[in-house]
Amino acid sequence: MAEFTIHTLESAPEAVKPALRAAKQKFGFLPNLLGELAAAPAAAEAYLALGRFLEQTSFRPPEQQLLLTAVSVANGCQYCVAAHSAGLRMTGMAQDQIDAVRQGRALADSRLEALRTFVTAVVEQRGRVSDDTLQGFFDAGYQQAQVFEVLLAVAMKTLSNYVNHIAATPLDEQFKGFAWEPAEASATPGR
């Protein structure tokens, strides 16, 4: 298997260092994912920009983390499920709800469940969701703009999930308490 460099602030290309410094300040450490993405400054900047755009959507922080976790579960990304499980905890989501998201089970909150169901269908159906799935999303109180905001989260996580699959990104120490294995772990590359 190919080895991918995980850059530090010192070894990263100059063009991406300001973005990495800002990320380190925001998160308190430089996640391995960003260290890998730093090899391609445009990719690192794009990922961070998508995150900033997601923060500007109508979704509250728990919903944002739910979106990111559900995409990562659907894509079988061990790194991102762990990272965003930590994010769900930080937003105050109850552990039983975090466990349900991680296991692809229904959430007790019907609105959040509609969001989880919709984003999972978007990923699994490559955007070709059924009319019933879309109607269920709308019936839960979501609007057309939120359909496109979901797609923003899917784009963001698809980039990072695929990086993690290809580079087998090792889990940061900060996320090890949230380690996750997909139901079919042997089918999912990466750590």
Describe this structure in words.
This protein is an all-alpha fold and 191 residues long. The model is unreliable at 186-191 (pLDDT under 50). Helix 3 runs antiparallel to helix 9 and helix 4 (61-75) runs parallel beside helix 7. Helix content is 61%, strand content 0%. It has a single domain (14-181), classed as AhpD-like (Up-down Bundle), CATH 1.20.1290.
What's the arrangement of secondary structure elements?
Blueprint: H1 17-27, H2 32-37, H3 41-55, H4 61-75, H5 78-90, H6 95-103, H7 110-124, H8 131-139, H9 144-167
Give the gist of this structure:
With 191 residues, the protein is mostly helical. 61% of the residues lie in helices and 0% in strands.
> How many strand elements?
0
Shape assignment? globular
Tell me the structural class. Answer: mainly alpha
Distance between the termini: 13 Å
Q: So what's the CATH class?
A: Mainly Alpha
Strand content: under 5%
Instruction: Give the oligomeric state.
Output: single chain
- The helix/strand series, from N terminus to C terminus, equals HHHHHHHHH
Q: Considering the protein shown, what is the CATH homologous superfamily?
A: AhpD-like
